[in-house]
Amino acid sequence: MSPVLAGVLQLLALVVALGLAYRPLGDYMAAVYSSKKHLRVEKWIYKSIGANPDTEMRWPAYLRGVLAFSAVSVLFLYLLQRFQGSLPGSLGFASIDPDQAFNTAASFVANTNWQSYYGEQAMGHVVQTGGLAVQNFVSAAVGIAVAVALVRGFARSRTGELGNFWSDLVRGTVRILLPIAVVGAIALVACGAIQNFAGIHGVGQFMGGSQQWNGGAVASQEAIKELGTNGGGYFNANSAHPFENPNGLSNLLQIFLILVIPFALTRTFGRMVGSLKQGYAILATMGVIWLGFTALMMWTEFAHHGPAFDIAGGAMEGKET
């Protein structure tokens, strides 16, 4: 099969998968954020943080909730990194320097996830799973909550009530992100992504010698990294690393995860404002832009004809890919 045909088929498979998920996920998210009922586990969370999920908030109160939660999250993640050397499962890594710890904490809470470090050489299991992976969940949940509050602003223009931030945060995490991420993590493990709490061990190289690698709960972090449109992978190379993204199927799954919620939110928008046509209009705009730039990117990649390489890494003269 030619590379062009393979690329087109992958694109078609992705579009079909997004199309199948669009309506049920979009309607489900609209129902989640419109429901008046609270799950038992959600009630426990509200009680533990002292929040009343039924209190309606106008934009100043909603904004204070976002900022307060984000400030506490930055502090927690910062301290977790600073005390890493004293935590179990640190894999022998030292505590993160103050400037690096603050930069990482702020970027993960802001959902920008800028990694100016080698995750596999700096972060132990506790910081990776209890800090970075958790922030991949809640920072995404905050982003969705703000989007939903904006939708309510259109739908409730006369009242000015945007819902309850704490309710939106908890529901987005418990009812949307967590279930999908669990299924995504299992699928990634089935594709070959690693999921363990192994220590540092040597791995043989094709050209001889060995390299030190540590295991980790990679598949679970990778699933929420993509689903929450984050960039904080377990390894510095992120999804270019074979432990995170071992093959073409896992790559297609990860692209699906990173796109499915943004696409389905247009359906959620239409459902919550009472006009599905408006949701379709936003979807059509997003779709045209996405398909256009995807086609351009694929064309530039397939237009390049570099020399083919044999299995030993040597160039094969006179042949092109």
Features:
321 residues, mainly alpha, two-stranded antiparallel sheet, two-stranded antiparallel ribbon, disordered C terminus
H and E string:
HHHHHHHEEHHHEE
Distance between the termini: 12 Å
Number of strands: 4
Q: Which stretches are poorly predicted, pLDDT < 50 over at least 5 residues?
A: 311-321
Calculate Rg over CA atoms: 22 Å
- Percent range for β-strand residues: 5-15%
Polypeptide structure, described:
- The chain has helices at 3-34, 40-49, 59-82, 98-109, 119-122, 125-155, 165-191, 218-227, 248-273, 276-303, and strands spanning 200-204, 210-214, 307-309, 315-320.
- The chain is mainly alpha-helical and 321 residues long.
- The protein has one domain.
- The protein has a two-stranded antiparallel ribbon. The chain has a two-stranded antiparallel sheet with strand order 3-4.
- A hairpin with a 5-residue loop joins β3 (307-309) and β4 (315-320).
- α6 runs parallel beside α8 and α8 packs across α9.
- It is globular.
- It starts with a helix and ends with a strand.
What is this structure, in a nutshell?
The chain is mostly helical and 321 residues long. Helices cover 64% and strands 6% of the residues.
Itemize the secondary structure elements and their pairings:
Layout: H1 3-34, H2 40-49, H3 59-82, H4 98-109, H5 119-122, H6 125-155, H7 165-191, E1 200-204, E2 210-214, H8 218-227, H9 248-273, H10 276-303, E3 307-309, E4 315-320
Antiparallel strand pairs: 1-2, 3-4
